[in-house]
Amino acid sequence: MSTTTEPTRQPESPLPSGLLIGGDKLTWSSGGTHEHIYPASGRPNATITLAGPAEMDLAVASGREAHREWMSFTVDRRRDLLIDLADAVHENMAALSGLNVHDYAVPTSLSINTILLERFLRHFAGYVDKPHGQITPAAESSDLNLIEREPYGVVGVIAPWNGAMVVAASCVAPALAAGNAVVFKPSVLAPMAALRFGELCTAAGLPAGLVNVVPAHAEGGDALVRHPGIRKIHFTGGGETARKILTSAAVNLTPVVAELGGKSANLVFEDANLDAAAQIAAYQGPIVQSGQSCACASRILVHESIYDAFLEKFIPVVEAAKIGDPLDPTVVFGPVVSARDADRILGVIDQAVAEKSGELLTGGKRLGGDLSEGYYIQPTVFGDVDNSSDLAQIETFGPVVSVIKFRDEAEAIRIANDSPYGLNAFIQTNDLIRAHRVARRLEAGAVWINQISDMSPQGPYGGYKQSGYGRTGGLDGLYEFLQVKSIRIAMS
Asked: Residue 244 catalytic?
């Protein structure tokens, strides 16, 4: 493994830590505080104020007032304010990217999360002044039937620790464009970039309280979901938490959109460009965000005729990934998010070795030396994995991937679909006809052909099966934050 020779630097302080409600920063609340640990060093770098039920109530009330003000603006003004916000994000790109590093030690070289935020804001700003309604005939009548789309009011957006800026882009941006106010709850493990984004919303001229940012533990999060003033919830995270949210949301029959986990398959066919396929498999698998991503392609399916040749190219790419200080722009692989997660991931590796789920080809250990205080685990690859094993079926959410042989196209599709998840799928082939044919048979919400996953504001993104339901991006993503009203006018 390629590692840096110096220990990781501790981020500078102070870092954003208060609640942001009604445009004001609250540094004390009923929810208490959380000592934030920087994963690259294992040491505290901030004390985070947490929202309790009282602060959630205050945030919803603030959002309700801001929503009324927001909807009193002309569509031109709302559009221009979202463009101003995109400009502010652009001007503060370096600071936001830096806070993203401080949040969960994602390498600064992976600044795409903040770039996505600007892209989505500009894209959805363009929808604000566009018509979303229809006029349809009424059966056996000359009446006029109008179908309009209206905002919900105040919506709750709950982000995971590994994607606060992605969720701000894919959920908060369309929610605002649709005319809603947002109570944005980032994870306590990664709240700082989200808090800075909330400050930019106010500074750009959006009504105070249109975007309230409220980190919280379970009690505060549950109060948000159960609040009768929240008209819709958009949750990104794990299935276990999603089940709890659905139970709480049922109290008020609040609709929920859920973007959940994955155990995505990457199908490498015999005609694939192996150099490109090895790069894609490495970065989409164990390297980017240390495999801590729902988009991770953790099952790599390789045609048996090229299996050895693929591994000869793939393993060196994995082993060459530079590991170390996330603030070093040449580093591409950082730590996992916590000591608890490091222990959990190492337990998965140990179990796979003990159960002989596959052959451990590289990695599998926690890094020592200058990186020993951080939560660094080597990028880990298992070969000849049994797809029915826990290793292949349960989301690891860490830098661990399984390589699986297949004999023909039909078996590749069967193995890929043999999973409770269905978020992403990847195809490596130079046969365009095969690419289309296989893509249509894969049970996944997004299929990426000869490329890594690259979310765009133009395209809908979301899962099948236990990977969730609902979409972000494109018109589908905008419509998640609009409800339909039918208005019939008598014409006789």
From this structure: no
Tell me whether residue 312 is one of the annotated catalytic residues. no
What residue type is assigned to position 483 of the chain?
Q
User: In the annotation, is 294 catalytic?
Assistant: yes
Active-site entry in 118, 201, 263, 294: 294
Cα(291)–Cα(208) distance, rounded to whole angstroms?
Answer: 37
What percent helix, strand, coil does the chain show, rounded to 5? 40, 20, 40
Q: Return the SS3 of 71.
A: helix
Instruction: Report the predicted TM-score, pTM, of the whole model to 2 decimal places.
Output: 0.95
The answer to whether 91 is a known catalytic residue is no
Mean pLDDT in runs of 10 for the chain (492 residues)? 57 76 93 96 95 98 98 98 98 93 92 85 96 82 90 98 94 98 97 96 98 97 98 97 98 98 98 98 96 96 98 98 95 96 98 98 95 97 98 97 98 98 98 98 98 93 97 96 94 81
Q: Which of 259, 263, 405, 480 is catalytic?
A: 259
H-assigned helices in 250-354: 274-282, 307-320, 339-354
In the set 185, 232, 263, 405, the catalytic residue is 185
What ranges in 321-366 are assigned the alpha helix state H?
339-354
